[in-house]
Write a structure and sequence with these properties.
With about 130 residues, the chain is mainly alpha-helical. The chain has two domains: about 5-65, Orthogonal Bundle (434 Repressor (Amino-terminal Domain)), CATH 1.10.260; about 80-125, no CATH class. About 55% of the residues lie in helices and about 5% in strands. It has six helices and two strands, in the order H-H-H-H-H-H-E-E. Strands 1-2 form a two-stranded antiparallel sheet. A hairpin with a 5-residue loop joins strand 1 (about 115) and strand 2. Helix 2 packs across helix 3 (about 35-40) and helix 2 (about 25-30) packs across helix 4.
Length: about 130
């Protein structure tokens, strides 16, 4: 659960900047101290669900906007490279992520591998 906070911090700053709001203006709209918003954006503090809710109201965005890019995996693969790829892809634009996926698919098509299904039926390369 600890890894969710950097994503919230990133999304907070992205949305605030996109809307052209200062931290002070967002603080006023959200009824949260501007210093706390600064600390949240820099990852120095961890928001409660209530704080994220207030921020979503202040930014006038749905609450799920803070969590939209987070990939939840109940049975993650043991392969550290899959996790590293996931982290890299989260910082990509949709276009960049699609290109990376196309490259991976092309590679796997020319270099077939075996797959194994986990309990949920999700196939992982082995």
């Amino acid at each position: 659960m600890k890894q969710i906070y950097p994503f919230i911090s990133k999304r907070l700053r992205e949305h605030r900047v996109q809307l052209g709001l200062t931290q002070e203006k967002l603080a006023e709209r959200s009824r949260i101290a501007s210093k706390f918003i600064s600390d949240l954006e820099r990852g120095k503090k961890k928001p409660s669900l209530e704080t994220v809710f207030r921020l979503s109201k202040g930014l006038k965005i749905p609450l799920n906007e803070f969590f939209g890019d987070i990939i939840w995996i109940e049975n993650p693969p043991k392969n550290k490279y899959v996790k590293e790829a996931e982290i890299l892809l989260l910082d990509c634009s949709e276009k960049e992520a699609k290109k990376a996926l196309d490259i991976l698919k092309a590679y796997l098509k020319t270099n077939p591998t075996k797959t194994k299904k986990n309990k949920k039926g999700t196939a992982w390369l082995i």
